[in-house]
Amino acid sequence: MLRIKSGKRIYEGVEVQSYDPSLIVIKLNNGYNIGFRRDKVEIERLEDTDGGMQKREREAIGGTYDVSILGTGGTIASYVDYSTGAVHPARSTSELLRFMPEIKSIARVGARVLFSVFSENMRCEHWKRIAQEVKEELDAGAKGVVVTHGTDTLCYTASALAFMLPQIGGPVVLTGAQRSTDRPSSDGFLNLMASTRLALTDLGEVTIAMHAGSSDDSVAVHRATRTRKMHTSARSAFQTIGSAPLGYVRNDGIELTEHRKKADETVIDARMDEGVTLLYFYPGMRTEILDAVTERSSGVVIAGTGLGHVSDDLIESIEACGKPVCIVSQCINGSTNLNVYATGRKLLNAGAIPCADMLPETACVKLMWVLGHTKDRDEVAGLMQRNIAGEICDRRSL
Amino acid sequence: MLRIKSGKRIYEGVEVQSYDPSLIVIKLNNGYNIGFRRDKVEIERLEDTDGGMQKREREAIGGTYDVSILGTGGTIASYVDYSTGAVHPARSTSELLRFMPEIKSIARVGARVLFSVFSENMRCEHWKRIAQEVKEELDAGAKGVVVTHGTDTLCYTASALAFMLPQIGGPVVLTGAQRSTDRPSSDGFLNLMASTRLALTDLGEVTIAMHAGSSDDSVAVHRATRTRKMHTSARSAFQTIGSAPLGYVRNDGIELTEHRKKADETVIDARMDEGVTLLYFYPGMRTEILDAVTERSSGVVIAGTGLGHVSDDLIESIEACGKPVCIVSQCINGSTNLNVYATGRKLLNAGAIPCADMLPETACVKLMWVLGHTKDRDEVAGLMQRNIAGEICDRRSL
Prior knowledge:
2 copies of one chain form a homodimer.
Chain A: E1 2-6, E2 9-16, E3 23-28, E4 33-37, E5 42-45, H1 47-62, E6 67-71, E7 78-80, E8 87-89, H2 93-98, E9 109-113, H3 124-139, E10 144-148, H4 154-164, E11 172-175, H5 188-198, E12 206-211, E13 219-223, E14 227-229, E15 238-240, E16 247-250, E17 253-256, E18 276-280, H6 287-295, E19 299-304, H7 312-320, E20 325-329, H8 342-349, E21 353-354, H9 360-371, H10 377-384
Parallel strand pairs in A: 6-9, 6-10, 10-11, 11-12, 18-19, 19-20, 20-21
Antiparallel strand pairs in A: 1-2, 1-5, 2-3, 3-4, 7-8, 12-13, 13-16, 14-15, 16-17
Helix pairs in contact in A: 3-4, 4-9, 6-7, 7-8
């Protein structure tokens, strides 16, 4: 923690790495970075606060705390090395929290790094580990859990946790950052603050809390199974599809619509089958490709065109493959309906399982979970078409 | 054409099939349907207008006309059989135009059915046939061409035409209907009227004209290669991604932003390689799946997560496969950038070709076209990264 005197003004904040040695840059409590010429200001090092933070953090981990932050990697726990321009993972969650001294005003926080991976490398084993750790934290007395995660596959992990944790004893909030925390425009600070506040509510659902984009203090709360990362780099990339978000966390309060309330106990059911493949149909997709995929998969999700269509010549392969084939729509918005056109009816006759308005990515994760529980075709169809974790909004087409 | 006297009011329109024999339903000139109890109204059959329309259409086909409408199938040329509830293709384009007598006030129209297929069954051979017919129509003197098409794969066909027709002698407008033309809420009437008007402008690009959704008289004009069907059933499903639409057709006029002007001659270059596969990455995608696909493909487009990432364990397969592997983002919005994270840089080292902000579906069609011209890896990369038909908005990442 530094105190910097520039003319008559005084600024306090945590030092962040500067790309220019003649500049000193600090992150203010409000999350913004500010830079000064070293030769123009007086710099005073405040040892106490920063050390106090780390001491409290250690105490919290050893003792009791309200909100458990579990780090899994990603941009929120990364920093830019200005000498190379590359983004590096932070060495620890405490390093991350060091940039966010304000968090101690919200809750007693315990932080732990489970692993540190780019989220594109996440898979079932990581999802299971997170689910287990979440249960342990809630069972041990945490009021809520925040999972920091890379944004690339954050929605897939959130969906997986929503199916793996059918009942939770406190809010489970996934969050991340589209921009690394040492950048002035970083959303990591805001997202983690909002997630920590959300973790103290009565929410009994797995949610995603990410910058809403509309104003600089607004974080949207999304239902895990209905969210999609809709932009590669914008801070407001995360969107609830098919309805409004579950709510918002703002400076002046938390606003939530109807939601499931937290339960007395946390239940885990993390059996998964990793042999599922997700395929997006495109014109001229060859049966050779579909056959090669179904042969090598325990089940397939096809994101068809429009209401959920594929070309006629693929339908025989779907019928013959003997694996569950689920149908969603690549349109992202709206619902499948295989009863309107001849192609849809042929797909139904071939045994394809329409999944209402489920998102392709959610359907892929859900089929992994369902096939972890049963291989019986009718049971698979029944489970895929049952709304288990808020993944189906529109039931008209079922 | 019928004239119906109900009390003191008189309505004129084309008869549409009624689900209830006691009702008579007509489609008014404004596109809306209205139903009457047969025993409460006076019905007069106006043979002349409808016959005149069909006669003029025949004449136009034999002689000269300004706008050529080429039918390929889809909902816009379909009707609902009220006895079964199923949607059937119209038997001819004249049957379709019969419902739209107002079109003759816009232009001298010639109409032809090329084929009648659900658009999910379209493939390269259909795209080539349409491109050839478009060129023939423009060469023969048509000022513009409207292609009616099923909405499911309309954007893929539009992209294909944009690459296959590098220079056009008049507007080429693709349009369709999300709801069949005998439904009161059909968008087919509005879309075809607007497309016909657009076909008389100086537009030298392949475009898509579909209901804008904002008001009932507004049709958005989209650039072929930047459009995505973003809803399964809404009339405003078609959206330009990454920028505003190219313009709008409204009752009071046509408004277009900067666009390529029509050329003196139409050039066709329709060589395609159908061996391209489009894959969306998901967490845990197995190398076995990717290998099976690359072995069976002449090139692959991978829609990665975020800035264009896949899991580390797939990268060796990408390097070893010896086929061009193009990278786009499954986020739909925003641009790929393989220079920010380690995964991206590994992908670049493995020879993957980042495609800026190109849409996954457009990249798939473009790679078919590029591989129809060269198999040389560097030439493929060069062409994929060159903006040929407006498919790249954001060049920062290249």
